[in-house]
Amino acid sequence: MMRYSKEQEYSKTIFVGGCHGVGKSTVLRTLLSSDSNGVSIEVISMSKALDELARQRNLGSIAELNKNDLARKSLQKELISSLRKSNSNFVILDGHFLNIARDGTIIDTNYSVNGEYAIHFDAIVVIVAEPAIIRERRIKNSQNLWSTDIDKIEAEQKGEISEAKKIGNASNTPVYIIENTDLPLAVKSFKEILYTLAMVDYERNK
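User: That's the sequence. What structure does it adopt?
Assistant: Structure tokens below.
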């Protein structure tokens, strides 16, 4: 077992990406319900948080905000900066790097990697799985909202990984890939990432 030995000065933000049906929400729910060893973790839906912030700024809904690229990128940066002031040790943002149409067509990317509105996280995690497994999950859980074409699913997943690495390289942010074919193992891998990011001493009891 590992335990953190001191407090952090600010909340660390972790962006978790991955295509629809890969099981991000399941991994994060399981992480939250598991033993945290006294570490506080907050999980936030990126789209819901942006929608709420947009309405507070009288910019309409997230759907309307997506039509205004400059305003969306400005709010993204504002949101991420504000989350560093959270009382939690870690704030995990559940989202997507790509804007995907229902038929699996990649429309555009969601985040800036350079310039005034370039975003920065303390870490980036991409949840992945075999395209065939993602297809099965989509058929079972998403009520045919997303494409079940294997080639398009594979393209989505490769696109998520590519954008994650692009942002990571531009901002010198570590990027981790977690395979979600075994849920307990995926959660264990996520915990190991948290331990690495804490950058503090810990005790290992066997």
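Residues 1-6, 200-206 have pLDDT under 50 and may be disordered.
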